[in-house]
Structures are given as C-alpha cells and as structure tokens.
Known about the structure:
Layout lengths: L1 H43 L5 H32 L2 H27 L9 H36 L6 H27 L1 H11 L4 H40 L12 H31 L1
Helix pairs in contact: 1-4, 1-5, 1-7, 2-4, 2-5, 3-4, 3-7, 3-8, 4-5, 6-7, 7-8
Amino acid sequence: MASGFFAILDDIGALMDDVAVTAKVAAKKTAGILGDDLAVNAEKSTGFLSSRELPVLWAITKGSLVNKLIIVPIALLLNFFFPVAIKMILVLGGLYLAYEGVEKVVEYFFHRSKPAHVEAKEIIQNDETAEKAKIRSAIITDFILSIEIVIIALGSVLDETLTVQILTVSLIALLATIGVYGIVALIVRMDDAGYRLVKASGDKGILSSVGKTLVKSLPIIIKTLSIVGTVALILVSGGIFAHNIAFMHHIFPSFPSILREFAFGLIIGLASVLVVMAIKKLLAIIRR
C-alpha cells in the first residue's frame, strides 16, 4: 500500500519535471509575443483617471483569464481533431490585429480634431462609454494575442503526451496573464508610488528625487507604450501572415524578417481599414 502511494508520488514528480522542462522551452518560444502582449495591453490599460486605473485593469485581467479558459481547451481539441482550423483562426486574428493597429495610425493623422463645446453631462457619458469600449477592445485584443501564445506553446510540445501538453499550455497561459498584467499594474501605478515617496520623505533627499522621477517618467512611458503597442499590433499580425500564409514565405525572402512582417501587417491592415471605411459609407448611403 505504502509502496504504491510512493510510486504515485514518484510519477507525479517525474511529470512535473517534464512539465518544467517543456514550459521553459515554450516560454522561450513565446517570449517575443509576450513582449508584444505587454506593450499592447499596457497601452490599452492606461489613459484613465487614477481612481479608475486598477478597476479597469482588473476588469481586463478577468477578461484575459476567461479568454484563456476558453482558448486552451478549444486549442487542444482542435489540434487533436481538426488541426487546419488552428491556422485559419490565427489568420483571422491577424487580420483583426492589423486592422486595429493601422486604424490607430489613421486616427492619429486624420481624425484628431474634437468638438470644442461639449456639455458636462455628455462628457461624463462619453467617459463611461469610452472606458467600457476600451476594456472591451483590450479583452478582444488579448483574446487574439492569447490564441497566438497558446498555439505557439502547444506547437512546442506536440511530441509530448497529452497530459504534458495540457499542463504545459495551461501553465504558460496562466503565467502570461499574471506576468503581463502584473507588470502593467506596476506601470500604471508609478505616479502614485512617486507621490508617496515624495510625501514620505518630506520632499527632501534621494527618496524625493526618485519619487519625482517616477511621476515625470509615467507620461513618457505611457506615450512610448502607446507607440510600441501600435507597432506591436502591426508586427504581430504581419508575423501571423508570414508564418501561416504559404505564398508570403516567398515575398522578399532576403529582407530582414522584422521588416517583412511589419510591411505585411501594414499593407493588409491598410487594405482592411479601407474596406471597412467603404462598407460604412455604403451602409450610410443605403440608410438614407
């Protein structure tokens, strides 16, 4: 009886060792997409009132966890029964990321003007609506990036047993959410930490200088993350197209991969934005 119990423990220990090794390999392969995920979601989690930053971030984090709970079992089932569907889903997700990234660029250059006179009531309503819209957009983007993370992690353990696949992919999915949003939380609360350091030090000494640096650095970091997040959306989408659409492998093969992928994302994203704009105008004409 005792020997059987210890044999089970030994098997569990061996399984955990295997999972630790495969998770390390999967983490290395997903490091790039995790960096993009951080940049994109950090940009989407900022720009709110200080009192709303953590509630908004928590709402996005919960959405991210739900995304993983949906994606992981579906990815495992599709990989077993219908592997070609994985590629189709990735390409569709890449199309959405390219559209969102290029739309932000177009919005910045061509739609920056805002009405000068807006009633206070409308401002409050728009703020609440904007917050919900940004949370929804962040969760959708997280869903697509999570698909990429899960698929890459799954691809690194295809030769392992089903149990190892399940545990490895689940571990990477959980670490991706905790790691990414944990770092995002630290970023968005930099200014509060800085103010507290200044107050605690009586606005004197090294702690005060550190606090002021944190406060002054936050707007720069947020602006940088906004730019990096937009570039990341285009790059990630371009990478999806380059790796999952066969004929794109042979387009400018001598170019550096990062330039090729950015070009793919930019061109396809611009085309999708133009198509969506044309459809919106057509619908507006029909409604008249």
